[in-house]
Amino acid sequence: MNYPTRRGAVVAGLLALGSVALGVLVACPTDQEPDRRAEVITSLIEDQLVPTLADARQRGAALDGAATELCAAPDAASLTAAQDAWWQLRAPWKQLLAVPLGPIVDDGFDTAIDFWPVRPASVDGGVAAGVTSQAELDLLGVASKGMPAIEYLLFDPLAGDEAVLAALTSDQGPARCAYLELLASDVALRLAELDDAWRSQYTTTLVGDAYPDVASAIDAIVNALISGLHDIDDMKLAKPLGLTSASGADPELVESRLSDRSLSDALDGLAGFEAAYLGADDGASGLTILVAQRSPDVDAKIREELEQAKLALAAVPEPLRLSISSDAAAVEQAQVAVERLRISMTADVASLLGVTVSLSDNDGD
Fold first, then answer.
1. Long-range residue pairs from 193-200, CB within 8 A, at least 24 positions apart, any chain
2. Where are the domains of the chain?
3. Residue 324's pLDDT is what?
4. What CA–CA distance (Å, rounded) separates 132 from 329?
5. What is the pLDDT of residue 360?
């Protein structure tokens, strides 16, 4: 099948910006500057998180319907439709996870919907157990369900779509299809629950619902953005590349390796970070306005490093499961670029805004 293509770009090298000398760092604006923190918080919720979550909910329902249609009549067309529905859901979902905030993490929706890397044995165990109801599925661990489990049942990067259809129409096909339909229904249900939880708890502001004041809410947002970048540079790139262990590259640690959506997942994560930092109108309502108030140089540094991270990721050859071995230098260049952005968010932005960083390894060690 033909998946959406990424922007073609070649990176000649990452620009290393000099460190920025910071003066007295305070969380509140000076007397001459308007306090726009509440504006930033409201914009993040109303312009990014709420509409993106609504989009994910709608696409989750579409995946549920596509899985039902596939199992009613398994053929190349219905399989492609289900694969496309899965692929399309990833974009808003990964953008949401760039700002892991509120019930996404507090109520465990992140792992319930997207526990990865996929554990094939756990998914096969669910099929073999004959799980056919939501109540039975709820008893299983997160490794047996979610979007990665659906990916395992819909994609085969080696044997191709013919092998997927053969499995769905074999003697074990009915059990496999029943489990696939149940998994898709569960993802749609969880997204609906997450959407409802977010709207009921954080309608227009984080303040008063989850955090006692504006400063605490900004603290949480900055920490969430740092955590989202850490997920990209460490979990998506460094670990499968073998940079965090002596065992070398391991394709089984690559996210979305069966669909070969790995690099698009990472780019979608950066898109979510970009939307939160720049805002819906490219700098008029995002976190950038708070940073630029205090230090235009730091703001320019973040913007430049974001662009370099996007270019470096786009330059990695597809698919990532092969590139971690065949073009490790390009993958490492991308990893370093995202890590550099994360460290600047930690060392410069967090300090500039008076934020206490909670992620223990944000120094990049």
1. 193/109, 194/53, 194/57, 194/103, 194/104, 194/107, 194/109, 194/113, 195/53, 195/54, 195/56, 195/57, 197/102, 197/103, 197/107, 197/109, 198/49, 198/50, 198/53, 198/102, 198/103, 198/104, 199/50
2. 37-44+204-352, 49-201
3. 96
4. 46
5. 53
| CATH superfamily label, 37-44+204-352 | M75 peptidase, HXXE motif (1.20.1420.20)
Dist. CA 128–CA 124, nearest whole Å: 6
DSSP 8-class letter at 356? P
Bond prior to 240 in cis (omega within 30° of 0): no
**Cα–Cα distance measured from residue 106 to residue 361, given in angstroms and rounded to the nearest whole number:** 21
In angstroms, the CA 55 to CA 324 distance is 32
pLDDT value of residue 209: 66
CATH topology of domain 49-201: A middle domain of Talin 1 (1.20.1420)
User: Which phi and psi (to 5°) does residue 25 adopt?
Assistant: -105, 125
The alpha-helical segments, DSSP class H, found in 279-358 are 288-294, 296-314, 320-326, 328-344, 351-352
Q: Are 37-44+204-352 and 49-201 in the same CATH fold?
A: yes
Which residues of the chain fall below pLDDT 50?
1-27, 361-365
Cβ atoms of residues 31 and 50 within 8 Å: no
Residue 174: helix, strand or coil by DSSP?
helix
d(CA 55, CA 34): 33
- Euclidean distance between CA atoms 244 and 89, whole angstroms: 30
**How high is the pLDDT of residue 14?**
26
Phi, psi of 129 (to 5 degrees): -75, -10
Query: How far apart are the C-alpha atoms of 225 and 272, rounded to whole Å?
Result: 9
Do residues 223 and 355 make contact, with C-beta atoms less than 8 angstroms apart? yes
